[in-house]
């Protein structure tokens, strides 16, 4: 099992690869950092909260998806958010 620092490093590298692939290699460093911070907040919230596990699967998934979308929407515009989350902007999926 990786230590906390190694785990954070690997998760950051995964995010960087995802940004490069979905948003482009020229995506600004400052906005990359803001996405990393949003991801960190989401991870801390996920680890602290068990309430989604107590909700019916579809309801819990919907609440979690909205929370994730809202967190990244602070950094990304609608088109970028759809690309980053793998959603078709026209269909909402």
What does this structure look like?
- With 93 residues, this protein is mainly alpha-helical.
- It has one domain.
- The longest helix has 20 residues.
- The radius of gyration is 14 Å and the shape is globular.
- It starts with a helix and ends in a 9-residue tail after the last helix.
- 3% of the residues are buried.
- The model has no long low-confidence stretch (mean pLDDT 80).
Task: Please tag this protein with its features.
about 90 residues, globular
SSE blueprint:
Elements: H1 4-23, H2 29-48, H3 51-54, H4 57-73, H5 78-84
Helix pairs in contact: 2-4
Quick summary:
With 93 residues, the protein is mainly alpha-helical. Helix content is 73%, strand content 0%. The protein has helices at residues 4-23, 29-48, 51-54, 57-73, 78-84.
In total, the number of domains comes to: 1
- Report the biggest beta sheet as strand number plus sense, adding barrel if it closes: none
Mean pLDDT across every amino acid position: 80
Number of helices: 5
Beta-strand residue percentage:
under 5%
Return residue spans where pLDDT drops below 50 for at least 5 consecutive residues. Answer: none
SS content category: mainly alpha
Got a strand count?
A: 0
Classify the helix fraction into a percent range: over 70%
Write down the overall geometry.
Answer: globular
Q: Separation of termini?
A: 35 Å
Helix and strand succession?
A: HHHHH
Rg, alpha carbons: 14 Å
